[in-house]
Write a structure and sequence with these properties.
The protein has eight helices and no strands. It is mostly helical. Helix 3 runs antiparallel to helix 4 and helix 4 packs parallel to helix 7. The radius of gyration is 18 Å and the shape is globular.
Length: 200
């Protein structure tokens, strides 16, 4: 069946955020931090819109009961947008601390990039590892987590230590989002709750 219009709105908004972040990086590399700061207001606004559209899209798709959808997956969807919200808020708070700000923004993007990586790698990982808590964790988060670990490796190579913002942000993603979301996904009470929530 055709996806509801909100799915297309979601795609446009989330891709727009990625384009905006790319432009922001180019401004910094060009030394135009004035434009970077000005455009930052648009970034915060767009991030706020994402916090509404993301969960609404997840609910709409699960409620429509598309083939292959399962309501307990909202643990991943809602957890990801919560992780994103906290990291963006922290990045805005640390906007005058460039090393912390850029790490937190990149982690915020990686926190919600798992969907794309899972669509690309998830099937192969599932075929290799099967079902269960850790196989599901790997098929859902492997791609994003490799890049998050890559950030840490960059810090160790260039700074000889991990930046505190990286440590805090990566720990937030892993311990406050990914592990709890995976646990909820496999929890029967959560499955019953989300099934009732979307009306199935």
């Amino acid at each position: 069946p055709a996806y509801p219009i909100i799915v297309h709105v979601h795609a446009a908004i989330f891709v727009s955020f990625l384009v905006l972040m790319t432009v922001q990086i180019l401004f910094v590399r060009a030394g135009r931090t004035d434009l970077h700061r000005t455009l930052g207001v648009a970034g915060v606004t767009l991030a706020a819109v994402m916090l509404l559209v993301g969960p609404a899209t997840a609910f709409a798709v699960q409620h429509a009961h598309f083939p292959g959808s399962h309501p307990q997956f909202m643990a991943i969807q809602f957890g990801g947008i919560l992780a994103f919200a906290v990291l963006v808020a922290a990045a805005v708070w640390k906007r005058n601390d460039a090393p912390a700000h850029k790490r937190l923004m990149l982690l915020a993007i990686l926190a919600i990039s798992d969907a794309g990586f899972a669509r690309w790698l998830g099937g192969d990982v599932h075929a290799l590892l099967g079902n269960g808590f850790w196989p599901f964790f790997m098929q859902t988060y492997l791609g994003a987590d490799v890049l998050i670990l890559g950030m840490g490796a960059y810090d160790l190579i260039t700074r000889r230590r991990l930046h505190p913002a990286y440590i805090a942000g990566a720990a937030w993603i892993f311990f406050a989002y990914q592990l709890p979301a995976d646990f909820l996904y496999h929890n029967l009470a959560w499955k019953s709750f989300t099934t009732a929530l979307v009306g199935h």
